[in-house]
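Hi everyone,

Forwarding the result from last night's run.
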Amino acid sequence: MGEYEEGPMLRSNIPLSPPSSGILSAAVVALAFVALAARPSPGRAEDLISGIGLTHLTVYDQRPAPDGLMSGSPHVHAVTDEGYYVVSGQGRVELHDLKDGFRSVELSPGRYVQFPPGVVHRLVNTEHLVLLVVMGNAGLAERGDARIYFGKAVDGDPAEFARLAGLAKTKGLEGALDRRDAAIRAYAGLLELWTKDRKAYFRELERFIGVHMKAAASLREGFSEAVEAGPVAWGERFQKRLENLPGTGGEPSPVLHLPPETPTLGMCGILRPVTNLEAVGPGKDAEPRR
């Protein structure tokens, strides 16, 4: 879910409810485009506890993908851990990694699944699936740490990758679903390899993950800034609290997030990220409410 944002939803008539050097160069160019087009959230990496990212996600269910399933787009992260807590509904997450290959985890209310970077994942919505998505470091996906699986040919064509990746920005919800459909057509081939040719499956999985890992290396500086502002700064804050015991003081004010009126479009569904936190100031009266 990973879930980089692509601006407010545009109007739509769909109702809501080891790669070669050539391929690597293309991937770097395409990933740079996505990092710009995705537009980082106005929230900062240091806002939430420990620098995490937190997003309310409703997995796409406006129309089925080419394989007949309501789902998001399969994608991978290079350095970002991700977790899903199921708020409501039913579904599953399909996972692919170089150690164990493919497996599917059923999702139902109260369940939580977490996976490290380098795991290709797709969310499937079977009954109004709503999740709370936790990203290990806010701001990395928005800075380019996310790559959708469109297959080998598109990975070697930066213009086509950029066109597909930018569909949600140019066409709103319909574009997001068209992008998802393009990804699922390629993803069906990956699943077929799993059932028919395991060696070829792992070669293709390694190729795709490698493309993103090597391309993401070109964005290391931006990633480092987010990590320093988020988890590293929070770790230092925790350590300082321990050292100051039994003393207190110097803490920021409580903060509050109000959900945005207009949701945004992610790779997996409709997003309402927890950003733009505002300080909760003094109350108008000193007496607690009963």
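Helices lie at 21-37, 152-155, 158-165, 167-196, 198-216, 220-244.

Cheers,
N.
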